[in-house]
Amino acid sequence: MSKVKIRFFAGFIESQTKWLNSMSAKGYRLVKTGKMRYVFEECEAGKYAYAVEYVGDKSFKEEENYKEFLEDMGYTVFYKNMNLDFSPFKITFRPWAEKGGKISSNTKRSTYNKELLIVEKERDGKPFELHTDNEDLANYYDRLSVPWVYGCFLFLLWGILAWPFMPVVCVAGAGALLCGTFFGRARHKIKQILKNNELEE
Amino acid sequence: MKDNVKSGALTEVTFFILLSLYTPRHGYAIMQFIEEKTGGRLVLGAGSLYGALNTLTEKGWIGPYGDSGGRTKEYCITPEGKAIAEKELQRLTELTKIAAAIVEEGK
Questions:
Q1: How far is the C-alpha of B12 from the C-alpha of B17, rounded, in Å?
Q2: B95: confidence class by pLDDT, cuts 50, 70, 90
Q3: Which pLDDT tens digit goes with each residue over A50-66?
Q4: Which residues does chain B have within 8 Å of residue A132's beta carbon, measured at their own beta carbons?
Q5: Could you give all domains of chain B from N- to C-terminal order, each with its CATH number?
Q6: Per-domain boundaries in chain A
Q7: Do A66 and B71 touch (CB under 8 A)?
Q8: Distance between CA A99 and CA A57 in Å, rounded?
Q9: What mean pLDDT is predicted for residues A129-137?
């Protein structure tokens, strides 16, 4: 029997991972993702482990390559959006992305609404981590932190433009703060990882 | 993954990937090879492995094996990669020789 859940995690990647794993622990396995819809099917409790990865800075081709690689590893991979679809003309600019991924539009061959990958693995007793190498991990969080800076500036700009219309200014301020927090968290992670790295060496 | 090109010192992950590719292997087999050979001490995540494979391909130390007509992509070490691995083996052999002598003396 399938079960539909409505959730939206935006940039809360870790919360999303935790939630998916808790669903698996309750005996539900992900079978389909929509914008805010998650479709689950019953399975043996705890049979699957989930990891969520940010890939919004990759070009379409690179994202496809990576997805294929993960599927070859025996994992099941789902696309997931990180934003809700508010941008006009169904087009977004990602100055932080690598070549070929900077402009993302709502065409088939694009990374639009595919900022995240949800990766599912059959549990084998070992922890499920996609990034294990410290340097690679730091690199990942570095990539993850950049979009938040842009987000923060966009919200600030929005707030300034709306001045002195307080309701919008407040929303924009909160948005900027949230983006700033995400950025700070990612940078903090990097610091921790580099520290660990030194200890190991 | 920082490999010190000047001294020839490779990271453990790099060296193991090169060694695993003396026989053509796909991603999953590389991961298994490393886990098996290190008795599970060194576990490599798929994302990190993907990054490492791309870096090594860019360096020309490994390359795709055969045409990727089959869906699973296989990799193989290149002559350049073999040269790098041999150099690393030499460096490590020398290092263990020196270390063994000193440690033995200090007993």
A1: 9
A2: very high
A3: 999 999 888 888 899 99
A4: 43-45, 48
A5: 12-105 (1.10.10.10)
A6: 2-122, 134-200
A7: no
A8: 9
A9: 88
